[in-house]
Amino acid sequence: MDFSTIRNLITRYCTGEESWVDSRTVYIGHKVPPPGTEAYIPQRFPDNRVVSSKYTFWNFIPKNLFEQFRRIANFYFLIIFLVQLIIDTPTSPMTSGLPLFFVITVTAIKQGYEDWIRHKADNAVNQCPVHVIQHGKVVRKQSQKLQVGDIVQVKEDETFPCDLILLSTSREDGTCFVTTASLDGESSHKTYYAVQDTKAFNTAEEVDTLHATIECEQPQPDLYKFVGRINIYLDRDEPIARPLGSENLLLRGATLKNTEYIHAVAIYTGMETKMALNYQSKSQKRSAVEKSMNAYLIVYLGILISKALINTVLKYVWQANPNRDEPWYNQKTETERQRHVLIRAFTDFLAFMVLFNYIIPVSMYVTVEMQKFLGSYFILWDDDMFDEELGEGPLVNTSDLNEELGQVEYVFTDKTGTLTENNMELRECCVDGNVYVPHAICNGQILPGAAGMDMIDSSPGVDGKEREELFFRALCLCHTVQVKEEETVDGIKRGIHQGKSTSFYISSSPDEVALVEGMKRLGFTYLRLKDSHMEILNREDEMERFELLEVLNFDSVRRRMSVIVKSSSGEYYLFCKGADSSIFPRVVSGKVEQVRARVEHNAVEGLRTLCVAYKKLTHEEYDQTCRLLNSAKLALQDRDKKLAEAYDVIEKDFILLGATAVEDRLQDKAADTIESLHKAGMKVWVLTGDKMETAAATCYASKLFHRNTQILELTTKRTEEQSLHDVLFDLSRTVLRQHGSMTRDIFSGLSGDYQDYGLIIDGATLSAVLKPTQDVTSNGGNYKEIFLEICRNCSAVLCCRMAPLQKAQIVKLIKASKEHPITLAIGDGANDVSMILEAHVGIGIMGKEGRQAARNSDYAITKFKHLKKMLLVHGHYYYIRIAELVQYFFYKNVCFIFPQFLYQFFCGFSQQPLYDTAYLTLYNISFTSLPILLYSLMEQHINMDILKRDPSLYRDIAKNSLLRWPTFIYWTLLGVFDAMVFFFGAFFLFDNTTFTSNGQMFGNWTFGTLVFTVLVFTVTLKLALDTHYWTWINHFVIWGSLLFYVIFSLLWGGIIWPFLNYQRMYYVFMQMLSSGPAWLSIILLIIVSLLPDVVKKVLCRALCPTTTERIQRMRADRIFERVETNIRDSLLDGIQNTTEA
Amino acid sequence: MMASSYNAKDEDGHHPGSVGSGGPGAVKSKKPDNTAFKQQRLPAWQPILTAGTVLPAFFMIGLIFIPIGIGLLVTSNNIKEFEIDYTGVDMFSPCFNCSQSYSWNSTSACTCSVPFTLDQPFESNVFMYYGLSNFYQNHRRYVKSRDDSQLNGDKSSLLNPSKECEPYRTSDKKSIAPCGAIANSLFNDTLELFYIHPNGSRIAIHLVKTGIAWWTDKHVKFRNPGENNNNLSIVFQDTSKPVNWRKPVYELDPSDPDNNGFINEDFIVWMRTAALPTFRKLYRIIQKKKDNMTPTLPPGNYSLEVIYSILEKRITKMKTQIKMLRFTVFLRSVYCQIHKLPELSMLKKENILILFFQLQNLTFISKFYLLFFCNYL
Q: Could you tell me which residues belong to the region Disordered (chain B) (predicted)?
């Protein structure tokens, strides 16, 4: 039975029924509500203790062991170990027990240490003091003792100890400012509001008199969603119910800013806070290398089992003669004799398994993990990827996917903030077809009056003037921008620069800031929001005040936002701004055509366009609207849906005012990066929510599309004219004809000018393509396939008007296509998270739109341009390193175990091990572990700069080329060959001759030691041959581990070890070294076993070099030339000097 | 920060505690150090294997192997080996009688003598080996059937040997010393060598029976129990002899107390289990003559006297097994002129000679190597 269900049952049993209830009732200050209203059911909630640690002191060992043995590899080794313990096996349980113990201990220590740190952090958090109001007094409490319903006082710059509902603040208007930097990385100050009816309870005593209950939903992880209701009992009347939303909810982890203190009531505590609920594990991604490694493992498991089977069968065939089974000199014990033959055969099989089990080494997993973990530091340390502006370098959230960075075939990138700076600037606005360009930017100084703008069209009439000002006002009012005033930070400045450049705007959307700043340059300055009144300084430096009544927030589905304001003259206005596609259908009058033309023109230029519209409301209409909104806001269930419906009703019948165009500059070197990625054989897709024209412009600017790229459009515009079916077939025919002619061109040698294609598709068409078609007619069946076929032949694809989920869908589609390409998604915003999570490798950009993408990504970088180094250099290195690591590990263990297998044919299949226990145990742990680990950290087959300069090198390792089956078979065969050389080399030496000068003979342990010595040297030198980058560390490790082997062997055989019950190795190694022939044969065998690999390398390089090899060669030549020229220069200098003299 | 980034992979990545720590204060420290190691720009030697670099290396190695190869060729021609098969399967073999009729409960030993003729003199020290074929000394059950601490003179192990010795651990309720299958099957046919003088007299050749085991084995690894007690029969009084043995361990060589008991060299040699089922073990050494003028074994007629004494059980069991087990004796000496070369004469002659002989198999490879080079160049 699953543990979690049991746990659930237990918690249910313990906590009663309330976990069945969908909402919870919180009694503020634990006060019983007035009788008659509701039955008082004291509910039990967890305390505010945060437990991020996994273990306690008592359950650490069992729980950790259980978790470790859930890994299949560890479990396999455990089984082998147990088999060794139970049956009579050739090798002592130590040989597999010790490495396993080592691995388990190291992992346990690591996890224990991490857990200890977590405990410490938990304790620090849990014990930090909080101020709680009890009986009208402020009491200090430990954070962990906080209960749901407690009223908490939080002071400025303090962090909220749990999720709180804001009751009142030190400000009169009941607002407070909060940064959620540690939650989602947005450093901007957000405003939270107290419920109007409670904001008066300002002091501790007052708050204590508050009598209210809060009904809210049970905790859920979405940070931005919250629905609840507060019932306030005033004077024992009917309670007043007020809606609570996320704007009332202060999240644990956020910090109070610019507000002296607040009073709030705890509603979610401890592990139920939204922050705690959000720290849940993401699904684990596995890299392609890991997959091929697992495939190899299965092959080796097959080899292992078949080896054991072959030997078992042969053993019983050979033993058919009883004198062989039990010769007179070597008899069995009684119990052995009585054992049933099947049991004996099974035990023999297991014993062979144990004998050969080293072919799948424990240490490989450890080494791979260490390599990945340590290797990821090189990304963190990379100076080139450090961003001075942000003061941050790249982040590695998982080291599992390092090598996947070298395998990327498709790059899906977001546009805004990723390709572009997300540094917005208002370029122009268009009012009824009149274009205004704010150009006067003098260090943020506003040039007053009309001088600050340049009118392209002729001056509008009086009516036009009015419209124009309304447009500017609309932009000044329709936003959620906050003003951060410098003077609150630094008191001295107060009064000097009041209302001038010292204040700046903060918003979660950079577009809004750009618009408001642009308006400032055009003469309309948004000053502040004060007492629900927005203050604007108009061109005549007059203060205009508008009462802010409602804000209909922006969301990505509606793609617009609105505000309802009341002007000082008592008129109600609804201003709305949003994407053209969401505004135009709702417009009833205005100069739609001119504006539309301008918007399209701007979009082609690569500008972000927004349309602005308004409508006037009568008082009745406003009341109706209010009612509509309030009922939706008060709903406890489906509130979002109801809100959306309400918005839909309210936001219509607009009068179009105009449009704005904001420029989003391309990121530094974005075009260069995309070009490099193209050259490296990657396909770059841009997935954006932006409109087609804007996105296409960015694509041209970033060189994703070239001037000669033929653009194929798959958009709603086209599918309106033709059926989707026809369009798809048309396109595929175009592309395939090209493809066909291209192959012909290659034959005729005229492939010079082939057309490359770029595809543009929009969200609506995409969903039509992906929709499973109803008719199963022959040709209508599979749009998906045709679509993929088209995409495959396009060098660049642009998907615009994408919803976040559609981005993930596209990634999924490509992932599942028949080549199973490796995908990478890169983005910076919350809307890219789904795609980042879906792709093989997800990269987040730490940008302006918060940290959500970076938090959910596998790697996070600061700028798009860093992707180039990340993939072309780091990815390439990681891939070749890990590929060699995996292949080498299998190779060295074939070399290690195959002689044992051969030996069975000469020892009567008795499972006699060839090597001593110590050698069996330490081979993978210490004699051969460090060189490969360091190789896999340090290797650079080509210099970094060349990799960066020549992206086409990336194609050399594409499609997992170093871990394909032929390579794997080559390595395995090389291992078998080497093993044969070791074994038969030693065999012929032992077969018929003596070794030593005094005629004395060597035994079986010397035989094994000889084979082992050759083995260790060969395997290490093979790695040395593969090393292209010899730093002192490589030298140290390679020669050091050989030296260590020799010293260890001398020591191991040099003493009678009192704790051992056998002394088989005593002086074996030294005796061997005292024999000249042993020396010579060791050297000769090493050379013979290395020879084929050297020959293969030289021949391959000479006959069919890869690009990589050619470049290596070129570099070597260049160095040679440089040396030559240096010498020549110095000689010339010398001659000159002498002649001058 | 680092630890958690790795940790993110295993189970649960972030923990609330560490999240807050990345405040603005940490910004400065995030800047990585610009060290060569961290930037992966350590100075390095970057060799590539091309024909240009590999060929000279080949050539160098070849050059080293040329003198060795020549030396090997010369010496391998100077090795003399003589092999006598005394298994006695063949009807005409002098040992046929012994192998057929000898029954294991007969009290007297069966003796046979095998005549042979050496055509060439054996000079320098001559080593005499006995050889066995198809005797699996490397069988797992056999290899581990011994108690090293007992053999090292440990008192408690003497009376209570290791379980590994089963079924040769106890007999008659007494522990066996030395216990185990290896000791139990000790080779102890007695081999003697006579020179038949042309005048018909038989001259016994002196066979040295010490110096055949490793020095460390004899002096460190094997030790008699009861340190200073010279009377081994008292030391071993509570033990019983191995089942197949005729006499207890303390009577292996009563004449020489330094070669008796566990430190008997024949015994030690046998206890070092062979690597392969066909093996040889050093039996005796025939020292070269003092005068250095006459060869150690001059050409002529010889006779090998074999006393079938202890491996008696083989007789009863051997009917079916006879094709497998083969008993041989080898005589071997090496002699050649090469020691007169000045640079080699500094080394001990014998050492070099045997070294060269050992590599006769390798000679072929070296010749091949040379050929390869000639072709290549």
A: 1-32
In 3D, which of A669, A728, A678 has the Cα closest to residue A701?
A: A669
Q: What is the pLDDT of residue A462?
A: 62
Distance from CA of B66 to the nearest CA of A (A): 13
Q: Which of A414, A432, A762, A956 is catalytic?
A: A414
pLDDT of the residue at B347: 32
Smallest CA-to-CA distance from A521 within A449, A465, A433, A431 is with: A449
Q: Give the pLDDT band of residue B372 (cuts 50, 70, 90).
A: very low
| Dihedral sign of CA atoms A970, A972, A974, A980 in order | negative
CA B127, B128, B132, B138 torsion-angle sign: negative
pLDDT of A780 > 50? The answer is: no
Chain B nearest CA to A16, separation (Å): 29
Q: In what helix (H) or strand (E) does residue A639 lie, and over which residues does it extend? A: helix A639-650
**∠ CA A411-A413-A414 to the nearest 5 degrees?**
170
pTM over 0.95: no
H or E element: which one contains A650?
helix A639-650
Nearest to B214 among A279, A994, A1000 (CB): A1000
CB atoms within 10 A of CB A112: 16
Chain A residue numbers touching B22 (CB-CB < 8 A): 182
Token digits of residue B5: 């980034």
- pLDDT band (50, 70, 90) for residue A181: low
Q: Are A919 and A910 in contact (CB under 8 A)?
A: no
What phi and psi, each to the nearest 5 degrees, are found at residue A801?
A: 55, 45
Strand pairing report for A796-800 and A683-687: parallel
For A325, name the nearest residue in chain B, comparing CA atoms only: B139
8 Å CB contact of B212 and A1003: no
- pLDDT tens profile B135-177: 889 999 999 899 999 998 888 888 899 888 888 898 888 899 8
Q: CB of A868 within 8 A of CB of A948?
A: yes
SS3 content of chain A, % helix, strand, coil (to 5): 50, 20, 30
User: Do A685 and A411 meet the contact criterion of CB atoms below 8 Å apart?
Assistant: yes
Are the C-beta atoms of A526 and A512 separated by less than 8 Å? no
* Region of residue A495 (left: phi > 0; alpha: psi -120 to 50; beta: else): left
**Residue of A1009, A1017, A1088, A979 lying closest to A303 (CA atoms):** A979
ipTM value of the model?
0.82
pLDDT (tens digit per residue) in A850-870: 677 787 788 999 889 999 999
- CA nearest neighbour of B235 among B161, B145, B163, B154: B154
- Choose the mutation target among B354, B357, B364 for the interface with A, i.e. most A CBs under 10 Å: B354
Bridge partners, residue A217, by sequence: A23
Do the chains contact at A121 and B18, CB–CB below 8 Å?
yes
Query: Would the CB atoms of A944 and B41 count as touching at under 8 Å?
Result: yes
Evaluate if residue B322 carries a pLDDT over 60.
no
pLDDT at A503: 66
Which H/E stretch holds residue A1039?
helix A1032-1054
pLDDT of residue A505: 79
Strands A228-232 and A212-217, by their bridges, are antiparallel
DSSP H helical segments within A16-128, as ranges? Answer: 60-69, 72-86, 93-127
Q: In a mutagenesis test of the A interface, which of B7, B40, B41, B126 is the best target, namely the one with the most A β-carbons within 10 Å?
A: B40
How far is the alpha carbon of A810 from chain B, nearest alpha carbon, in Å?
Answer: 26
Reply yes or no on whether A640 is catalytic: no
Task: Tell me what the pLDDT averaged over chain A comes to.
Answer: 80
Please check whether residue A160 is in contact with residue A254, taking contact to mean a CB–CB distance below 8 angstroms. yes
